[in-house]
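Cont'd.
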Amino acid sequence: MTDGLCKMLWSPSIYLPSRFPAAAFRAMARLDDPKSKGLSERRILIVEDEAMIALDLEMSLEDAGAEVVGPAMDIETALDLATDEDDEIDAAILDVDMHGKDAFAVAEALAARGVPFLFHTGHASQAELRRRFGDVPVCIKPTRHDVLLHHLAKLVD
Amino acid sequence: MTASTLSRLIILVVCLFLAGIIVLLFQTTAAEQRAREQAEATTRSLVMLRRSLSIGLETETGQRGYLLTLEPRYLEPYLRGQDTWLAAIDELRRSLSLTPEQAAKVDRIRELAREKLKEEADTIALAKQGRVEEAIAVVRSDAGKKIMDEIRNLTIALEEEEQTLVTQRLTEAAVIETRTWPILYLLVGGILVLVVIGFWLEKRSALAEMSAHEADALRAASERSDLLARELNHRVKNLFAVILSIVSLSGRGETNVKRAVEKISDRIHALSIAHAVSQGQLEAKTVPLADVVKATIEPYSESGAAISMDGPDVVLPVRAITPFGLFVHELATNAAKYGALSEEGGRLDISWSLDAEGAETKVRFLWWESSSRQVPEKAPLDGFGSLMMTQSARQLKGRGDRRWHESGIVAELVFPLSES
């Protein structure tokens, strides 16, 4: 089993060995924690240029009770959604490489609004992300969706 | 110090050495010239001094011969010398460049010559008057002999001085030559050494340049392969993510495990076809649209349905291949299960065109199925399949549409070519 790993930058304690048991992930994800509101009724922006991944994320989020903003499949749409103050966003999942363009402008717009986000990428250099965005979680593709949602839930808590 | 500064320095030093060589050669030649001129002058002086002395001696011989014999023919040398002696001395005085001391000596010689000529003239005059005894007495008085001795001594002194001058100049020339040759050898040797060093430097810098080029080429190649490896790694990660999403999406709402597995494997197969038409090349930028369509419907070509394809040459950017391939795959797999590709006698007409809309070029892709049957029951369209098609169209920044017409499914996909 190739478990996707999600790392909190500057927090190596979150680094997980690749053969971490799936049960442990579920426990960690606390998806069944009744006290946590989790992601339900949260508005989550998805920025992802790969249709299947976007669709899958969208459905997973909807399963978790979240409301999906987007998914934005190009930078322009993503920027429009991220900067629209009327549209409330609780958190965002950002792919970094969008048709060869980076999504940093979207990340900066979200940071300016105080919207927490995480990176979900197979491309970006972690050093570059760390330098620009400090403590933002970075989930390397492919990451298990329960792990991704766990991090997202921590961002909106 | 850079190589070029060093080369310039070497050229400068070589030029200085060459200038040194020229100065030395000039000095040596000048010294030799002086020595040669002196030798010529001395030879001329010696000849003239000898001539003058011999004329004097001849006049004396003539005088004595006459006094002894009283025969006028003995007077001949005297008479000749009487005319020429003083003239020869004057010529010597005039034509030679003499030091003041030498000039004084020559003047003294002239004075003595006149005295001698006078003594000779007097004695000859006496003899002619028959007073031979008196004349011989004058000769015996040794006055004439003393004059001649003094003339001879002065002449010898002058000759010696001239010889000394020549020797001196020759010595000077020799000294300069002796001094010059080792320096010349050194300078020539130095030039040779510098030229060799210059060549060596030139060769070394050429080699350095070449190896720098090689290092650049190597670095570029290694950077390129690193880049390709990174790109490949990213694509594989992305592909895994897409596969996982397809698996997860295909499994949704599907209770029949066999059907779920079929859907999953079909869709992964479609992914692999999309990958195959781009030949997995990292650097392929475009792939013909027709190739994607052909590869995607190829597994259903044995269905017995008539398939036509028609459209202009359109090349898709690599990024468009996966969504476009998945879109066509959903249509094909559906057609194979329920539509035109599921029956003998079905028809599938695939066509596409390019529409210019403002600055944008749009691809209009049309999928038209016709069933030979009356198609009474319109099978429900697969919900997730439709969702995947819509999503693929969105990835292409276009829109997809699928609906029933009287004899089958018609689907249309319109997307911009530049941005997809």
